[in-house]
Amino acid sequence: MSVLSIVAAVLAFVCAAVWGTVGVLGVTGKLPGNRWFGVRSPETGKSEAAFVLANRVAGPGFIGAAVILVMGGVLTLGVDGGWSILFALAALAVAVVTVGVVSGLGIRAAQALPDESGGCDCCSGGDDHGAASACSDDKAGSPADDCGQSSCGSCALQGMCETDSAAAQRQ
Which of 60, 110, 133, 141 is the most buried (most CB within 10 A)? Predict the structure, then answer.
């Protein structure tokens, strides 16, 4: 067994421990909001409830990625030959894709949460979902303010910050 195989297996086990722990804490709702672990995005950062929900949704996938990494690490250590490192590398690649997919699902779940600020949901086509009083005239001037964004560069606001006169000038 080569030193490179041992290093690859240890890397797989360390990643498995981290993602497994994050997955278990996420599923149980005990993962505290932080800057380093779990599903982190602008959508999950808007509230503690969004962060918890996203990590509950993604948690089983994080645990699955940890299981894949453990299996890859065990196979790397259990197989003789220079190519045994491929097991750890393949497990790492599959785990990264798995974590990416379930993180996306968690973000989508966080996006589905209602806005806690009581403001209108002007970012989704101007539909205020029946809350006519929530969209006041003072918020109507700035779609970025409506959505809690600092600028109109957000994907959710793409094209919404352009005024009618600016659109007419481009045409």
Answer: 110
Long-range contacts of 110-116 (CB under 8 A, 24+ apart): 110/39, 110/41, 110/43, 110/44, 110/46, 110/50, 110/51, 110/53, 110/54, 111/43, 113/47, 113/49, 113/50, 113/53, 115/148, 116/46, 116/47, 116/49
Please name which of 67, 68, 70, 59 lies closest in space to residue 10, comparing C-alpha atoms: 70
Task: Note the pLDDT tens digit of each residue in 3-15.
Answer: 888 999 999 999 9
* Residue pair 141/115 in contact by the 8 Å Cβ criterion: no
d(CA 38, CA 50): 12
pTM, entire model: 0.66
